[in-house]
């Protein structure tokens, strides 16, 4: 194994993980006071539909104000809907638990193919067996990390059948588990890689490209407090692992993230509520990447997470995460100071509903800041239906919905969960815009068209 960086995947790495995880373990509670600041997670009908190519899931008890929590709309679900939710919950947990077995199967196939080669060909690949052994070690480290995430799931299901078997470890239990589909396993791999983007030093470039324009716009347009002295309240739907709303909270705003994916919500709860120090864990996000690797060491490269302590917030901060469908969870109550969307609006089946909903959420004079591409997630799913607009069409719809454009930049280069060592990297050319909901609307009808006159806020 001299040809690869074995030190990164040896027993010391596993020992570091165990020691760090012992310090980070915490019990999730909604209302109890904690010695460390904690992030509240509010769950509401969180079944996932479809795939996300860019997947887009702590409040200090003494400073937390109940009237600042978003109140989900009251909705009634049938028994069949609730059973579907329970089944999805179990499927996501099963996919995480199946990670080790899934990876070992792939590594086993590679070893079988290697052994089927002629001795002449095997002699030309002397380092491959050691590389496959290292992949197994990295898989074990990632799986221990996944088990820590599952131990801290905040969404309990009272009647959920337990997966534990007396006398067996979780790793042993997976040996008897039925296979989990490739779609679900891709979600697990994406979740692990999202730690790179949101919570590692290696993800700094991606965060700089995608998050900094939004954070700078918030600083420019949104005062920390309004005339009454209340904090500005900002919503970030599609918040993934929670770094962007966390950054907004660190800036001093009342900040809420909203996420639909249980995969992301399980992971974001872990990093926000169970990691109290920087660099507590080491994981290996690229071991499942089979192609375009320059070297074995690149495939085995580890990252430390989180790159900062998620507890590094002011004592009076206000920050929370809300689970559920963006269109269902929040009332159009006109109380938000800003909505910040990053790689999100193209997740809609009907993007016009997103525009109208954001407009209804904002108070008069408030702002919508957006950055991302238009990779419509349901475009290739005929049974779902999707409104696929060009940016020109989208901009016209935004204006006709009542918004006024304040800033607009196109062709912004952005990476999304890309391996810097890979021989192939995809780069989006994104759109950024800042829009405002007018303070007043005067509607006049002529020639069967509506003309709306706006008075913009000058209180920037």
Give a structural overview.
It is built from 15 helices and twelve strands. By secondary structure, it is α/β, with parallel strands linked by helices. Helix 1 runs parallel beside helix 5 and helix 3 runs antiparallel to helix 5.
Summarize the structure.
The protein is of the alpha/beta class. The chain contains 15 helices and twelve strands. Helix 10 links the parallel strand 2 and strand 3.
Record keyword descriptors for this entry.
460 residues; alpha/beta; eight-stranded mixed beta sheet; two-stranded antiparallel ribbon; 15 helices; elongated; disordered C terminus
Helical region count? 15
Q: What's the Cα radius of gyration?
A: 23 Å
Q: Summarize the biggest pleated sheet.
A: 8 strands, mixed
The counted number of beta strands is 12
Task: State the distance separating the first and last CA atoms.
Answer: 60 Å
Secondary structure class reads alpha/beta
The arrangement of helices and strands along the chain is HEHHHHHHHHEHEHEHEEHEHEHEEEE
The portion of residues assigned to helices is: 25-40%
Strand order of the largest sheet: 1-6-3-2-7-8-10-9
**Which ranges are low-confidence, i.e. pLDDT below 50, for 5 or more consecutive residues?**
1-37, 44-69, 160-166, 443-460
Provide the residue-averaged pLDDT: 81
Strand content: 15-25%
Sum up the overall morphology in one term.
Answer: elongated
């Amino acid at each position: 194994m001299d040809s690869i960086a074995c030190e990164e995947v040896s027993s010391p790495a596993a020992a570091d993980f165990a020691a760090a995880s012992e310090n980070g373990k915490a019990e999730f509670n909604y209302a109890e006071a904690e010695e460390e600041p904690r992030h509240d997670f509010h769950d509401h009908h969180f079944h996932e539909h479809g795939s996300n190519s860019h997947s887009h899931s702590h409040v200090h008890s003494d400073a937390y104000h109940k009237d600042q929590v978003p109140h989900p709309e009251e909705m009634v679900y049938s028994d069949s809907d609730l059973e579907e939710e329970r089944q999805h919950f179990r499927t996501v947990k099963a996919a995480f638990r199946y990670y080790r077995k899934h990876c070992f199967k792939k590594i086993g196939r590679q070893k079988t193919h290697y052994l089927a080669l002629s001795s002449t060909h095997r002699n030309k690949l002397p380092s491959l067996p050691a590389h496959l052994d290292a992949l197994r070690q990295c898989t074990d480290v990632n799986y221990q990390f996944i088990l820590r995430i599952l131990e801290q799931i905040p969404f309990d299901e009272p009647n959920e059948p337990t997966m534990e078997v007396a006398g067996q470890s979780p790793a042993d239990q997976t040996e008897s588990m039925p296979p989990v589909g490739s779609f679900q396993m891709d979600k697990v791999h994406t979740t692990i890689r999202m730690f790179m983007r949101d919570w590692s030093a290696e993800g700094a470039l991606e965060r700089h490209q995608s998050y900094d324009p939004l954070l700078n716009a918030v600083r420019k347009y949104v005062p920390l407090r309004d005339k009454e002295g209340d904090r500005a309240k900002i919503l970030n739907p599609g918040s993934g692992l929670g770094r962007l709303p966390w950054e907004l909270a660190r800036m001093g705003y009342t900040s809420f993230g909203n996420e639909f994916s249980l995969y992301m919500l399980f992971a974001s709860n872990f990093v926000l509520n169970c990691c109290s120090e920087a660099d507590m864990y080491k994981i290996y996000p690229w071991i499942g990447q089979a192609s375009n690797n320059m070297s074995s060491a690149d495939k085995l490269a580890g990252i430390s997470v989180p790159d900062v302590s998620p507890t590094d917030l002011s004592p009076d901060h206000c920050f929370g995460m809300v689970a559920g469908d963006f269109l269902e969870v929040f009332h159009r109550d006109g109380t938000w100071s800003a909505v910040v969307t990053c790689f999100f609006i193209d997740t809609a089946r009907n993007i016009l509903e997103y525009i109208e909903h954001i407009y209804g959420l904002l108070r008069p004079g408030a702002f919508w800041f957006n950055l991302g591409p238009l990779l419509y997630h349901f475009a290739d799913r005929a049974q779902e239906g999707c409104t696929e607009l060009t940016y020109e069409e989208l901009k016209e719809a935004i204006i006709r919905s009542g918004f006024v454009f304040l800033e607009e930049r196109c062709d912004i280069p952005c990476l999304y969960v890309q391996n810097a060592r890979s021989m192939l990297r995809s780069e989006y050319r994104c759109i950024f815009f800042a829009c405002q909901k007018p303070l007043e609307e005067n509607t006049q009808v002529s020639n069967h068209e509506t003309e709306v006159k706006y008075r913009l806020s000058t209180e920037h």
